[in-house]
Amino acid sequence: MTRARLAALVLMVVVCLVAGLSAGTVPLSPAEVWAGLRGTDAPAALIVRELRAPRVLLAFLVGGSLAVCGAALQAMIRNPLAEPYLLGLSGGAGLGAVLAIATKAAGPWAIPLAAFVGALGAVALVYRLSLVVGRRLDPRVLLLSGVVVGSFFIALMSSIMVLSDSAATRNAFLWLLGGFGTSSWQSLAVFAVYAAIPLGFLAFKARDLDLLALGDEPAQHLGADVNRAMRVVYVCTALLTAASVAACGIIGFVGLVVPHAVRSVARPIHRTLLPLVFLAGGCFLVLCDVVSRVAVRPLELPVGVITALVGVPIFALLLRRTLA
Amino acid sequence: MGLLLGVAACRSHAAAPRRLALVDDAGDTTLVAAPASRVASLIPATTELLFAIGSGDAVVGRTAWCDYPPAAAAIANLGDGISPNLEAILATHPDLVILYNSTRNAEAAVQLRNAGVPALRLNTDHLADVGRVARLLGRATGHARGADSVAATFDTALAAATVEPGPHAPKVLLLVWEQPPMTIGRGSFLSELVERAGGHNLFDDVTASAGTVSIEAVAARNPDLILTATEGPVSFIARPEWQVVRAVRERRLIRVSGSEFNRPGPRSAAAIRELAERFREAVR
Amino acid sequence: MIIEARDVTARYPRAARPALAGVSCGIAEGRLVAAVGPNGSGKTTLVRVLSGLLPLEGGSVVVTGRDVSAWPRQELARVVGVLPQREDILFPLRVDETVMLGRYAHLGPLAASGDADRLAVQGALERCDVLGLASRPVDALSGGEWQRVRLARALAQQPRALVLDEPTASLDVRHEMELFELFRRLVDQGMAALVITHHLNLAARFADHILLLSDGALVAEGPPAQVLSREIVGRVFEWPVAVTPWSDGSPQIVPLRPGERAP
Asked: Which pTM was predicted?
């Protein structure tokens, strides 16, 4: 990568992070942000240090993780429309969250944990359904199973919500729409430590992704252990996405749009693509979070709404460029 | 003799059904055979009012949320009232149905009228609605005098309970949901109660009925008190990200429970008094 | 002998009949073997079996002395370069990037590419005469150029044997001839090669040895002149043909129309 491009990339990341720290209900100048980070006791400083900093960093990490998952899945399933949530995750997470709320599970971590477990449960079910004879994962079946299982879990979740006589359960979807409003240094630390492992594994599989994108047979003939690679990619994306749901609800489109946007300006070789996608995804989600905080202040919009509103036109633009 | 005649006239006057043209809050005019003696009330507020004005015997159906007065429990439960179950309603053979004035219920109202049952859609969201709705229900069920009495008592009690906003009116965050944190703006019922109890809604610049807020916004506005009316354990006060808010650190939390904080009605004055008392305690 | 199949029987999951039954063949250095036969005769299955993708029901496949199922995939790719019929181009790479993918066999998932790899890629591009197309995206190539690029990728694996499944399908005569000349050159330089093809006449002219498959069985094998006789071809392909020798001695097949007779 050329030095100029690298500099531009670093600049983009810095600008996004600064924007994330400056914007919000109380607009702060970068100078105030800097003062706040260094630690005065002014109320604005407290906001920057305790609320905005972990929030922006968490949004960056989650955005990067979701984008990397999207890129890896698109290569593995050989479908440019693949998204982490196509694996049935959102349905599973929703069901888990609703069950936690309906059973009044205690503790502030109850709902995220339940969503996490639910997401992984859905993924395991999709995996099982997709295994064809010979214990190989067929990507086409994977997509279909993901949609089917996801819809089923969403139907279950909706039934519980409608039939429940508790207002809390009926409003469970509010948690799912999610956002970064309750980010803390604690939740950031948990996610960061946890996400490092699957991200690392995905990085190791970058070359395999290049081969997988050609097809199962060509990849095997070139020397890739396709079954192992698919399992690793599948498990890692599932873990990362489930953790993202637990951290901040369901945020779609990042995994779909960001990889395509990056591919339009960078080589699709995954060794260089994945790190770029991570950075771009992080910046994208940070900026979307800024919009969600600022658009209707002092209220907030769910971040997932912003990513869709922004993501869809970008996607349409990309489509036009590739088809032209 | 005159007394006997008078009594007979009163009774016959009360017994003779008249066709009343009533205009409901959706702007529709409906012919009601007054006095209605079989009322399906699909709004908790109107169930309360019907009992209050003396028409409790006429109520033949209620929603699952109609928890006051206790006598309402004996009446048939017709569901949650949000998407009315028309079959269940018609099974009680009502001669009047009261629906909440939402666009969803417009369809239900039309279907009920087609089935020959008059349906009224009413707004029962604010304190100002109480008098009007009470009088309407009174005319429909033949308890106009009871309704007038309730309305008058309501106005007086409300005026008596209302606290003048002083210079130290506490700023109150109305936290109606924890994950994600949500508040309600001015004009909502709970906000009305808080204002009348001498407090000040932290987000009274928000016109939407409910919306997600960031903890940052709360911290920036620095409320004196946090008011929650949700059921279930309150877990947010222990969470690290909330400690930025002074009221959380100092545990200045008020919890209220009870349906009198959800809907306007004869109990509203008592609710305001309770709130005012809690405010005074909290800022002491 | 690089790859040797002995009495191989293989069946697809839940299939009633085996796709290959009792087939034996060998791929040796300096020899171009062509596998021909009607549709469904088991040619692609043979490719899968020789590369260890399809487990055997009977018989064995041995690659340089070791059973194929004992070879880890990455190691096997250093010995045998296989070009399957179909391949997706999902995210088009450049030609040089595509050929570099062939170095996975030597680099594995982690190692950084070095001079040896760049040299191998360059050599492969040259041998397949696509060096001038190095920076072209693969979705901008013609059919013939794309096949040569795929072949270069296989050569970048630095294999000892090539197995090519219908490499000239849907190519025009010029590209076909160019490719077969290229195969011949590689074989003459020491490569072992098995080419699956529909084109009996090209097989006749370029191959040293023909395998004629029908319904999963090897019905004839040997030099082209021996296998591609009027009687054998007409029986196996269920169509009357005439056979005329070309100046290089290879038999050229001419399918007959109804009413025509062989001269």
From this structure: 0.85
Binding-site residues on chain A for chain B (CB distance < 8 A) = 24-26, 43, 46-47, 50-52, 54, 104, 106-108, 111, 165-168, 171, 174-175, 177-179, 181-187, 293, 296-302
Could you tell me what percent of chain B has a pLDDT over 70? 93
Phi, psi dihedrals of residue B137, rounded to the nearest 5°: -65, -35
Q: Are strands B96-100 and B119-122 parallel, antiparallel or unpaired?
A: parallel
Long-range contacts of A25-30 (CB under 8 A, 24+ apart): A25/A293, A25/A297, A25/A298, A25/B214, A25/B216, A25/B217, A25/B220, A26/B216, A26/B217, A26/B220
A contacts of C72 (beta carbons < 8 Å) = 225
* Helix, coil or strand: residue C32: strand
Q: Which two tokens stand for residue B190?
A: 């709970």
Residues C40-67: what's their mean pLDDT?
93
Residue among A78, A215, A223 whose CB faces C104 most closely:
A223
The helix/strand/coil state of A209 is helix
Q: Which residues pair with C20 in a beta bridge?
A: C10
The Cα diameter of chain A in Å comes to 64
Whether ipTM exceeds 0.90: yes
Cβ(C52)–Cβ(C68) below 8 Å = yes
Tell me how close the Cα of A15 comes to any Cα of chain B, in angstroms: 21
Average confidence score pLDDT of chain A? 86
Least confidently predicted of A63-77, A127-141, B131-145, C8-22? A127-141
Q: Identify the CA nearest to B51 among candidates B169, B179, B138.
A: B138
Backbone angles phi, psi at B66, to 5 degrees: -75, 90
Q: Nearest-CA neighbor of B94 among B138, B52, B141, B53?
A: B141
**Helix or strand holding residue A156 (H, E):** helix A139-163
Structure tokens at A68: 């990397």
C10, C57, C158 from C50: Cα distances, Å = 11, 13, 18
Q: Are C103 and C121 in contact (CB under 8 A)?
A: yes
DSSP label of C70: G
CB atoms within 10 A of CB B21: 8
- Interatomic CA distance for residues A56 and A282, integer angstroms: 9
The owner of tokens 């996608």 is: A277
What secondary structure letter does DSSP report for C94? Answer: B
Q: If residue B40 lies in a helix (H) or strand (E), which one and from where to where?
A: strand B39-41
Looking at residue C137, the DSSP 8-state letter turns out to be B
Query: In sequence order, what DSSP letters do the residues of A283-306 get, joined into one string?
Result: HHHHHHHHHHHHTTTTEE--HHHH
Cα three-residue angle B84-B86-B90, rounded to 5 degrees: 130
Q: Please enumerate in sequence order all residues whose Cβ is within 8 A of that of C147, keeping only pairs 6 or more positions apart, or say none.
A: C167, C168, C171, C175, C179
- Structure-token pair, residue A168: 């809390």
Contact residues on chain A for B205, CB-CB shorter than 8 A: 298
Q: Contact A185/B240 with Cβ under 8 angstroms?
A: yes
Instruction: Suggest the residue from A41, A46, A51 to mutate for an interface test with chain B (most B CBs closer than 10 A).
Output: A51
State which amino acid sits at residue A32.
E
Quickly tell me which residue has 């499944």 as its tokens. C165
Residue that the structure tokens 């199962």 belong to: A216
- Alpha-carbon distances of C140 from A85, A239, A263, C93, C161, rounded to whole Å: 33, 38, 17, 10, 29
Residue-by-residue DSSP string for C67-96: EGGGS-HHHHHHHEEEE-S----SS--BHH
